[in-house]
């Protein structure tokens, strides 16, 4: 008779506080949960009564890793509420900035948080001795990404120059040229990254689910567009609640999101599954080398999809930088804003998946209502569904190995728990 | 001599300061040779409880946080507040301006009671803090300089002069001359005036200096037809806890 009890208190190498609980009695799965134990954050309440100009400065503080993503979604919400039109230069700089954040976040997750599991160590620190070249490469890519964001926004965590209608600063031509050179030089680091990650022995695990991401007709979407699901649905951003459907589960207390099935997945794998045709050819080649094909239903491969996206973002960043250099990039005033009452939904596909900010602005320019729906919250139900599917398949293994597999599974989602706690609920053991 | 053991902890925050610590390795990887990191949940699995130096990021946001913080305090010889949330209460304290129950209900509706919460506060509200590294987020170089000082047995030095000093050295055009307000005249420097340098007003994420030159600041304001109240309104981003303290609000 099998009895297994896994209790991971404060899961490590994730952002925020979560506990994994698995309880198997006599071979039967009794309990399988991810508890979110982070303190509530209350960001929506903080926004109430604040001037719309302050919103992105407050909400970028939801997350130190995807600060640019939150700021961008926040600005888009305010801009759509106030019907602000952006200049071509602003749109290009926002995209370039966003690519910097995708690379920064993905390199942190794949190299520093995920890779140690495959190399049998507890963190990236011992790897500095045993795999010095790997660690130095990771730090080099991370520095490039951080410097790219800093060139545009002043710093990556938390961006300074991003504002409603545009930017309060513009990179110089010399900075753009120097950055372009570094991006081109980073191609060899990308090749090495693909070469490293294709040697990893990804756990075998398949479970069909629905994949939700942004989509655009003409590009691999990160900012704006429409909401696409792998079950064949397409929604305008204003209809985001039709996708997220927050609900209370019958025997638990956790509010989760679901659309066409019991759960859905967001993030790099969802974007890859929905939009892989629009990846840069080099990223397509990386996907082929990593054995990644749409629709991929192995959640562990979310990390492989992140590697593919890093390659894509380096290439697309080179293309955008070239465009900026050709058309010129100079300091310009942010687009004029006419303050009026309105509601706007801002949507970005941030490193961990699709993110919604929805603001109501009063005619005094103060925020009168706010709703933020964060990727990790949307993945929460899917993570638990994966846990329930995976545990029975690995029950014959020793407990430490089961524990490691569960940790690796949750870590593959790159959960950002401190972002999501303002609406995730703790499931109490009774 | 054995290396000093260092641990990192976080309460309510975005973990951006710990990320900045990780980023400081880009320029200073030798840091890993100088100290032994025994706990850093965001980056490593090991959890050692034997440490001399504890860095704490984040605000206290619920009663249970205080007990955990006291445990850290008991084990650490030196406790350092990392960033604005731990140092000042930071943006978390924005919600203190509204009745706690209303805040809880706005976000969690009729399930508000499921989640323990109290008014957000800096870690210094519940325990003795030896040093603080200010900022939202912290400055990478300042973090390295504090660690270096501690390793050499020196007192870490955090600037206690206004952001205007650094802004002038950068030869930035004063934001007041551009028709904006800015907390630079009273806010603590050490950031290199990074926000004004990128076209945004100083928001005093590093707190106020201990002896602001109010007269000089008022002269600047008068020159631009502004009142102190208009400028100090900017304090509601990172300094809500301090402003409410000055108004006589306390939580016991």
What's the structural blueprint in terms of helices and strands?
The complex is a heterodimer of chains A (430) and B (252).
Chain A: E1 4-8, E2 18-25, E3 28-36, H1 43-47, H2 55-59, H3 67-81, H4 88-118, H5 127-130, H6 132-153, E4 162-163, E5 166-167, H7 173-197, E6 210-215, E7 226-229, E8 234-235, H8 240-244, E9 247-248, E10 255-256, E11 264-265, H9 268-275, H10 281-289, H11 302-327, E12 342-350, E13 353-361, E14 367-373, H12 375-393, H13 399-412, H14 417-420
Parallel strand pairs in A: 6-11
Antiparallel strand pairs in A: 1-2, 2-3, 4-5, 6-7, 7-8, 9-10, 12-13, 13-14
Chain B: E1 5-10, H1 16-27, H2 31-34, E2 36-40, E3 53-57, H3 63-75, E4 78-82, H4 84-88, H5 100-108, E5 131-133, H6 140-151, H7 163-169, H8 194-197, H9 214-223, H10 228-232, H11 240-246
Architecture overview:
The complex is a heterodimer of chains A (430) and B (252). By secondary structure, chain A is of the alpha+beta class. Chain A has one domain: Cytochrome-c3 Hydrogenase, chain B (Orthogonal Bundle), CATH 1.10.645. Chain A has helices at residues 43-47, 55-59, 67-81, 88-118, 127-130, 132-153, 173-197, 240-244, 268-275, 281-289, 302-327, 375-393, 399-412, 417-420, and strands at 4-8, 18-25, 28-36, 162-163, 166-167, 210-215, 226-229, 234-235, 247-248, 255-256, 264-265, 342-350, 353-361, 367-373. In chain A, the strands form 5 sheets. In chain A, strands 8-7-6-11 form a 4-stranded mixed beta sheet. In chain A, helix 4 (88-118) runs antiparallel to helix 11. Chain B has 252 residues and is of the alpha/beta class. Chain B has a 5-stranded parallel beta sheet. Chain B is globular and about 55 Å long. Chains A and B meet through helix 1, helix 4 and helix 6 of A and helix 1, helix 5 and helix 8 of B.
């Amino acid at each position: 008779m099998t009895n297994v009890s896994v209790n991971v208190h404060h899961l490590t190498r994730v952002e925020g506080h979560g506990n994994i609980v698995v309880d198997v009695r006599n071979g039967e799965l009794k309990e399988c949960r991810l508890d979110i134990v982070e303190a509530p954050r209350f960001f929506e309440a903080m926004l109430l009564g604040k001037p719309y100009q302050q919103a992105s400065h407050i909400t970028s503080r939801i997350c130190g890793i995807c600060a640019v993503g939150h700021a961008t979604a926040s600005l888009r919400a305010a801009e759509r509420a106030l019907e602000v039109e952006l200049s071509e230069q602003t749109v290009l700089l926002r995209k370039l900035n966003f690519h910097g954040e995708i690379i920064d976040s993905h390199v942190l997750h794949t190299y520093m948080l995920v890779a140690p599991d495959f190399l049998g160590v507890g963190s990236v620190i011992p790897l500095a001795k045993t795999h010095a070249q790997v660690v130095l490469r990771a730090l080099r890519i991370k520095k490039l990404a951080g410097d790219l964001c800093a060139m545009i926004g002043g710093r990556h965590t938390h961006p300074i120059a991003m504002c409603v209608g545009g930017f309060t600063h513009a990179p110089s031509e010399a900075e753009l040229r120097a950055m372009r050179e570094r991006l081109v030089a980073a191609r060899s680091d990308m090749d090495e990254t693909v070469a490293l990650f294709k040697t990893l022995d990804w756990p075998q695990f398949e479970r069909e689910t629905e994949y939700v991401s942004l989509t655009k007709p003409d590009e691999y979407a990160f900012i704006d567009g429409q909401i696409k699901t792998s079950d064949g649905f397409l929604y305008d951003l204003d209809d985001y609640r039709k996708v997220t459907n927050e609900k209370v589960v019958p025997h638990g207390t956790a509010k989760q999101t679901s659309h066409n099935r019991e759960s859905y997945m967001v993030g790099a794998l969802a974007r890859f599954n929905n939009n892989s045709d629009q990846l840069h050819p080099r990223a397509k080649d990386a996907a082929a080398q990593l054995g990644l094909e749409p629709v991929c239903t192995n959640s562990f491969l979310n990390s492989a999809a992140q590697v593919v996206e890093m390659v894509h973002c380096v290439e697309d960043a080179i293309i955008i930088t070239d465009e900026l250099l050709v058309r010129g990039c100079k300091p310009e005033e942010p687009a004029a804003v006419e303050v009026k009452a309105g509601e706007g939904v801002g949507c970005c596909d941030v490193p961990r998946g699709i993110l919604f900010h929805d603001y109501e602005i009063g005619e005094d320019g103060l925020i009168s209502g706010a709703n933020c729906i964060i990727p990790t919250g949307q993945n929460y139900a899917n993570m638990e569904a994966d846990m329930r599917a995976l545990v029975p398949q690995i029950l014959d293994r020793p407990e430490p190995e089961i524990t490691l597999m569960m940790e690796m599974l949750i870590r593959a989602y790159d959960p950002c728990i401190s972002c999501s706690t303002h609406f995730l609920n703790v499931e109490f053991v009774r | 001599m054995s290396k000093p053991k260092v641990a990192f902890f976080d309460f309510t925050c975005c973990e951006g300061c710990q990320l900045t610590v990780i980023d400081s390795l880009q320029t200073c990887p030798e840091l890993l040779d100088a100290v032994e990191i025994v706990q850093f949940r965001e980056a490593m699995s090991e959890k050692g409880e034997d440490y001399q130096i504890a860095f704490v990021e984040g605000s206290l946001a619920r009663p249970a946080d205080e007990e955990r913080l006291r445990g850290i305090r008991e084990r650490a010889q030196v406790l350092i507040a990392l960033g604005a949330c731990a140092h000042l209460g930071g943006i978390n304290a924005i919600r203190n301006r509204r009745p706690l129950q209303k805040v809880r209900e706005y976000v969690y509706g009729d399930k508000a009671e499921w989640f323990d919460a109290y008014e957000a506060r800096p870690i210094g509200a519940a325990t003795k803090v030896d040093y603080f590294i200010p900022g939202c987020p912290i400055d990478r170089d300042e973090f390295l300089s504090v660690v270096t000082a501690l390793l050499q047995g020196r007192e870490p030095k955090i600037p206690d002069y206004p952001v205007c000093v650094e802004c002038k050295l950068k030869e930035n055009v004063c934001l007041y001359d551009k028709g904006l307000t800015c907390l630079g005249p009273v806010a603590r420097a050490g950031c290199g005036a990074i926000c004004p340098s990128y076209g945004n007003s100083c928001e005093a994420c590093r707190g106020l200096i201990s002896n602001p030159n109010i007269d000089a600041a008022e002269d600047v304001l008068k020159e631009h037809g502004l009142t102190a109240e208009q400028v100090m309104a900017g304090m509601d981003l990172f300094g809500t806890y301090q402003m409410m303290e000055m108004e006589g609000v306390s939580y016991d």
